[in-house]
């Protein structure tokens, strides 16, 4: 719904109908909520600025501002610094097994969603002392550092920061597609991994990249993946949106109980 259609629709719904009760800002908030629930205002849609909407509807600017604030408090709208007010991007929560090793791309494709990667930074250099220890490398063996924003159907879901020895990939590894597909193509498919999950909040920079509020909850997942011969092939730190993922594990009672 474009700006003109929105104004027409709001006017047609009788914000000043004397049969309605409650302050104008509540009526406006309820009407916008109805448009969102009916699917007429899609997630990510930009709304007019307070002044523009107030002038178009012949309302006070404070009325529009208060309605917007109410809807932001409820999560229906979100404010993006320097960009304006938008219908919140609703995320369908996904369950991710803790016991299955798969790439982000493969996981999204299995759900019928289109995976994508946006490269945030890419560099080939020497590993840090911690990385040398984790990856079992000498200090002068080069690694690929690949920071990417992972998306599904265009929606940002995770920031992935991977460190992979160049000897397993080659200097020409791109980074736009699945890293695991690239490793498999080079004959270095990961077969097992150790993952550690930590609940964190997002710093302003990461939150802006993921298009959520600063301080929003996230899951930090640190993963060390190995080849069949036990060599470490990947060390990755990923921040997953807390509103998008539930990580689940099947538990079985022990024989000694």
Automatic annotation (TrEMBL):
It holds the Pfam family UTRA. Coiled coil: none annotated. Residues 22-90 form the HTH gntR-type domain. Transmembrane segments: none annotated. Keywords: DNA-binding, Transcription, Transcription regulation. The keyword Glycosyltransferase does not apply. The keyword DNA-binding applies. SUPFAM superfamilies: Chorismate lyase-like (SSF64288), Winged helix' DNA-binding domain (SSF46785). InterPro entries: Bact_HTH_transcr_reg (IPR050679), Chorismate_lyase_/UTRA_dom_sf (IPR028978), Tscrpt_reg_HTH_GntR (IPR000524), UTRA (IPR011663), WH-like_DNA-bd_sf (IPR036388), WH_DNA-bd_sf (IPR036390). It comes from the Bacteria. This is GntR family transcriptional regulator.
